[in-house]
C2 domain-containing protein (Acacia crassicarpa), 173 residues
Amino acid sequence: MLCLPPSEYIMGEHLGILKVIVVQGKRLVIRDFKSSDPYVVVKLGNQTAKTKVINSCLNPVWNEELSFTLTEPVGVLNLEVFDKDLLKSDDKMGKAFLNLQPLVSAARIRNILRVSSGETTIRKLVPDSENCLVRESSINSVNGELVQNIWLRLQGVESGELELTIKFITPLV
Ligand SMILES: [Ca+2]
């Protein structure tokens, strides 16, 4: 009798390039006297990237694009904000995560629908107890690229939100 694996993925299969644009932070927590010097560390599996530090700012605008390769099994994107300090170790300003599975599923739907041009909303995600979403987030196909704009609520702190734009570049097969 043929025994199939529980899911269809092939371990280590290369799915595409994931571009994470860390757009901005809002209402971040104070970790110095009156402000903070925030930067964001983004992790996907064993890949890590970080933004630059923005000094003395609780509503920083980074607009920085960080690139990752996405492989099966699809993991979770982890984000953590820190306050840069010179004389002591950096302080924590909250963390958030994003499940990338909906984006990968959206890519499959796009392939089935053969969407390669124009802008089409593939699916919408709503905030719930299983994610960090602040508001509804839609996954769009924009000229063949999958684009998702997201506001994430930072966990473990009194306040703070992060805005990301995720682009998933994967061949139409
Ligand atoms: Ca500082």
